[in-house]
Amino acid sequence: TAARAAENATFAFKPIDIATDDLIHVPEGYESNVLVRWGDALWSDAQGAFSHENGVSVDMSDKVFGENTDGMELFDVDGKQVIAVNSEYVNPKVNLPEEAEGMPRTAEEVQLLKNLQGVTVMEVEAADKGFKVVVDSPLNRRITHETEMMIAGPLAGSDLVKTNADPMGTTVKGTMNNCGSGRTLWNTYLTCEENFNGYFGATGEHEATPGEVRYGIGGEGRYAYEKFDPRYDLTQEPNEPNRHGFVTEINPADPNSTPVKRTALGRFKHENAEMVHAKDGRVVVYMGDDERGEFLYKYVSTNTWAEGQSPEGILDDGTLYAAKFNDDLTGEWLALTPETTGMSGEEILCFTRMAASAAGATTMDRPEWVASNPLKVEAYCALTNNKNRGVKPNAGGDETPVDAVNPRETNNYGQIVRWTPADENHAADNFAWDLYVMAGNPDVYDNEYAGSDNVNAGNMFNSPDGMAFSSDGMLWIQTDGDYSNEGEFEGMGNNQMLVGNPETGEIARFMTVPYGAEVTGLCWSLDKKTAFVGVQHPGGTWPDMGEGNKPRSSVVAVWRTDGATFG
Ligand code: FEO
Ligand code: CA
Ligand code: CA
Ligand code: CA
């Protein structure tokens, strides 16, 4: 393995080998420690609320760190370090009493699951070993499936989002399936609603509309919410799902602020939201829709914004575009307008997938995170995999042919596409693109499934998902893939975090996570000396270990033992 590691020699760390165990591994000269686990108290009255036997009780469930940590960002709030972090979904088998057998039996059990998801805002501070949560900080906050939010942008007040509980179509409860994240130029948090469809179900006769079918809405809800709460019952509230699947903005500096759903950014299975400032002063947000055969999007504000100005309206008035990748390595952003889609402005924002299909956007191999290079006008999107090309992603979805940007028929490994906007302007209509990496296995294959030239036996991985740039212009890549270490995945081990050099193309393995887990979410302390990394759905009993104990998704702190910066 030393010889393998030497294949990547230009990084500030010595790349590590794969792992197949239940531990976290980081390079020599680095250390890691758990910052917070699901069930850990955010307020002192919830201290000791978690037990391996019973999890947490319903009345403590919105006072603890949520389940299945995902995207996160760290903010400077008057010198205090505040992390806003998503809790994407729950594992009812782990979170509910054993007798429930993985499905809530009562409204109370549904409430518990609702409370363990959403967003946590928490102050953190340096501690003996890494960092700790500041219990009882006035900045701590839990945002759940029941938190009051505002609907803003063109869909506010639309008939499409009116319900019995909200006849005006302007307020909504909850943000759901919070996957990736983003931050605004004015230092608020963006949480991205991904697989929101799974929370809704029909208790009676319900014929799915084409719009529901395209988003996978219908049948039974994944956690039986609809049996205990009419809001999630399509039979009673058919418009409720139209109020989810957005990018939601949260002010981490004000625990009493009302989160705002930004409907102008479109409704789909949002992965993350990468905001950049275009050369012309407009605000651009890149967004992936993570499903086979769906699209890559960008939002461009109508007005410009500059430091010190109010951001009022910047995320409510703009144009949504979907990407078209041409085989000659050029691309176009297709504006989604009534002219290009044949749909009304409100329909475009509510049924964005159908609008992008009508405009002729390029179907993609599951667009996950987008990250933009702070040192260069370019952006990257992880196309995680596409195991079932040719099977229509959803009824009503498009065909998903092999093309230059999605070049492999069965794509178990994934690729990362990068684009350079015309005129170094993120708001431009045209771009040039290339594949930064095609993941693959050079030990098993010697064809296109071996991966691109920058993949070797010492750094191979599959299913890139989370991505973020450090301030030195390095691309950090997190995987959510097959961790069997068998067959065509042999030599890849557990999920991992790698670092890519955008200039040379080199990629080196930095971290591995416990068996079964994916790596998701990455941010740094204000001094850039500590990285925070999310570990979602560990398979064994990490991090507490011990026979019969519950696995606990956690955020981990990683730092250099010499105290140097690396972020
Ligand atoms: Fe929640 Fe597409 O990952
Ligand atoms: Ca993801
Ligand atoms: Ca994924
Ligand atoms: Ca996940």
CATH superfamily: TolB, C-terminal domain
Can you tell me the number of structural domains? 1
Judging by the overall fold, what is the CATH architecture?
6 Propeller
What value does the average pLDDT take? Answer: 96
What portion of residues is helical?
under 10%
Topology, pairings included?
Layout: H1 2-6, E1 30-37, E2 69-77, E3 80-87, H2 92-95, H3 107-115, E4 118-127, E5 130-133, E6 141-143, E7 148-152, E8 171-173, E9 178-183, E10 189-193, H4 210-215, E11 247-250, E12 260-262, E13 274-277, E14 282-288, E15 296-304, E16 318-325, E17 330-335, H5 338-341, H6 345-350, H7 352-359, E18 367-372, E19 379-383, E20 415-421, E21 430-438, E22 464-469, E23 475-479, E24 496-500, E25 507-512, E26 518-524, E27 530-536, E28 554-560
Residues 179-180, 271, 368, 465-466, 480, 520 line the site of one calcium ion.
Protein name: Transcriptional initiation protein Tat
